[in-house]
Amino acid sequence: MRTVRWLGGISLLWALSSHADVIQYQGLDGRRYFANAVPATGTVQPLPALRPRLARATARENQQARMMSLVYPLAQQYDIDANLVRAIIEVESNFDAQAVSTAGAQGLMQLMPETATRYQVQQPFDPRANVEGGIRYLKDLWQRFGGNLPRVLAAYNAGEGAVERFGGIPPYPETRRYVARVLALYGVNTTSAKIYRYRTAQGSILFTDIPR
Questions:
Q1: Inter-axis angle of helices 173-186 and 82-92, to 10 degrees?
Q2: Has residue 18 got a pLDDT over 50?
Q3: Which residue spans within 8-47 are E strands per DSSP?
Q4: Which residues lie closer than 8 Å to 180 by C-beta, 6 or more apart?
Q5: pLDDT digit string (tens) for 146-171?
Q6: N or C: which end of the chain has fewer CB within 10 A?
Q7: 74, 137 in Cβ contact below 8 A?
Q8: Residues 6+ apart with CB under 8 A from 90
Q9: How many other β-carbons are positioned within 10 Å of the β-carbon of residue 162?
Q10: What tens digit of pLDDT does each residue of 72-116 get?
């Protein structure tokens, strides 16, 4: 039996399978415990809300894994870091292939209809087609803005024209939040002024704020 103790209002819950029933009980020491089997002693009470949460977390991880299996070969094909694409997808759609924004952006990488047309994405809700269109757009932005990653991300969110018009990240709160969120998920220091691009020993592309 795996048992997890509740301390100071923080649940130290780990390694409990979503396929197992999880119960909570109060031990003889007066503390509350979580376990995946009924203990020999203590007062046992069901915990019905925990198992659905674990199941939802597992389903989300499986969805991400399926989508990333499409991302990796396409990112390699177009010479873009797959982890950067992952961060963009998480912020754009949270890996929901059917996502539609209030502005009309569609799919995993939230392509606007005109962008989808520009990159010949005829089925924007098809995960592979959407990701390929988004990566191609990202690649063009990278070349257009000389590898300046914050500007590339700002252009992906607000459009190339806005970045060129303001000479950098536009003063739009949404765009500034977007750039900061993607860089944070990607693991880049948002205060760094320079982004470096390297090819790893495995042949993939890495963007980082740490020079080698």
A1: 140
A2: no
A3: 10-11, 23-26, 32-35, 43-46
A4: 190
A5: 999 999 999 999 999 999 999 999 99
A6: C
A7: no
A8: 185
A9: 16
A10: 999 999 999 999 999 999 999 999 999 999 999 999 999 999 999
pTM: 0.66
Pick the closest to residue 158 from 129, 146, 145 (CA basis): 145
Tokens for 84, please give them.
């950067």
Give the count of alpha carbons within 13 A of 202, CB side only: 7
- For the record, the structure tokens of 73 come out as 């070969």
CA gyration radius, the chain: 22
H helical segments located in the chain? 50-77, 82-92, 113-118, 127-144, 149-158, 160-166, 173-186
**Averaged pLDDT of the chain:** 80
Catalogue all structural domains in the chain, each as residue range(s) with its CATH number: 3-48 (no CATH), 61-208 (1.10.530.10)
In angstroms, the CA 135 to CA 142 distance is 10
Residues with a catalytic annotation lie at 92
**Tally of residues, the chain:** 212
CA 118 to chain CA centroid, nearest Å = 25
27 DSSP 8-state letter: -
CA atoms in the 13 A half-sphere facing the CB of 204 = 13
The owner of tokens 């948002």 is 190
* Nearest CA among 98, 155, 158 for reference residue 130: 98
Largest CA distance in the chain: 70
Which of the 8 DSSP states describes residue 106? B
